[in-house]
Amino acid sequence: MLLSLSPSLAFRPSLRHLTSSSKYCALTSIASLDESGVVNSWIDSSVITQSINEPNEVQDKKTGIAEFSDLIQNFSSSPVEKLIIRDSLLVYIKRDDLLRLRGPGISGNKARKMLSLITSSLQSNSNPNPNSSSPDTTPTPPINSLVSHGGHQSNAMLSLSACSNYLSIPFTYYCKKLPRWLKNNPSGNYLRSKSLGMQVIQLSNEEYNNKFSITPTNIPPFDPPTSKALWVPQGGASNLAVQGCERLAGEIYDFYVSHFREGSGVGVVIPCGTGCTALLVHREINRLMENYTGTGTLKVIGVGVCGGRKGITAQMKLLSKETGHEGESLPEIIDCKIPFAKPVQNVVDVFQEMKEYGVFLDLIYGAPAWVSIFREKKKPDGLLKDLQIFYVHTGGLEGVSSQLTRYKHAELVDSDVVQ
């Protein structure tokens, strides 16, 4: 059985609860039987539970993993900092790197993307089954395994590992063959994920590309491993991210309305790997701005760190289609023009510079994004012309140590920089 839900899952800052609705449809082509005859099937990421109730309806920690109300209260918002950079550049930074999703402890945009996964699982485990004859019967959780794919040091990999460990369900991760050095000396996000129980399935480059480069990202290219397996596309780019990203958009909109003067033009700058966060925030901000009666502008601008403008735009179009919004407007993209994840001198220079302002960036997305921001701001006809910069710090700091080690091996930083 495939469970599916309308992608318009709203979570506004003004609400103290999540709401959702559901519908069911059979999709036998993605179901399989295990050795005991149990039907294994995928659960669509657009629905993990039939409904999520108000936080005060969850009262007893003993019936769930944590109190839903506590989780929501500790996920209320992330702060915004106002800084002057390079003597004259005024910027606002939305510090999602300081955000923590209580329980699995993940931060940044991954905390946003995994919010619905964790809250729905807690809600399911914390409420008695109304159809059960026994009051002590715990309802069956909405999922019983996670499956995804991606790079060896992926932040999404680590976040899913933390979620699966917290929910006490298995997590299977498909990746290319491990390099010899990482296999012999596990480190960084890979080591942390393995310690949290992640099961790794290595594929040759050809196998990996055949499985994950041809099929749409929302359709798993293999049979589900358990009766209710949740397939999470690379980077969490799916309906799973809608609720958390809509909430982020609401926080940004509220800050814009309350802190910027009438007529202000603000560019919400978001680093892009898959483009998921930028697209979903762009969609929701556009919806919110329809009711804005002022004369200013609030627009999302992505930085194409992985894949550049062309690659990110293509991924956004695919995600738009998969979330039921094919043909919608897309955010404009700054072309990064820095080789993805390669040690580069100007990237580590900006990393060091921003650290002096109290802003700690990762070297895969954050620092390259700021290299691009500084460059774009200088252009007389750039995308940031006449716009106040509102940067969303998407986190990703878990892998900084291993990233700096690579910069050390490339002789771009001294040993004392690596921690």
Short summary of the structure?
The chain is an alpha/beta fold. The chain contains 12 helices and 17 strands.
Which features does this protein show?
Rossmann fold; five-stranded parallel sheet; 419 residues; disordered N terminus; single chain; alpha/beta; 12 helices
Distance between the amino and carboxyl termini: 48 Å
* Rg: 21 Å
Largest sheet: number of strands, sense, barrel closure:
6 strands, mixed
Structural class: alpha/beta
Structure commentary:
The chain has a six-stranded mixed beta sheet with strand order 6-7-17-14-15-16, sandwiched between helices. It has helices spanning 68-73, 108-126, 155-167, 180-184, 188-195, 205-212, 242-259, 276-289, 308-322, 345-356, 366-378, 400-409; strands at 2-4, 23-25, 32-33, 39-40, 42-43, 80-85, 89-95, 100-101, 106-107, 145-149, 171-176, 199-203, 229-231, 265-272, 297-304, 332-335, 388-393. α3 (155-167) runs parallel beside α5. Helices cover 34% and strands 18% of the residues. A hairpin with a 3-residue loop joins β6 and β7. The chain has two domains: 2-73 and 101-240, no CATH class; 80-99 and 244-417, 3-Layer(aba) Sandwich (Rossmann fold). It is α/β, with parallel strands linked by helices and 419 residues long. The longest helix has 19 residues, at 108-126.
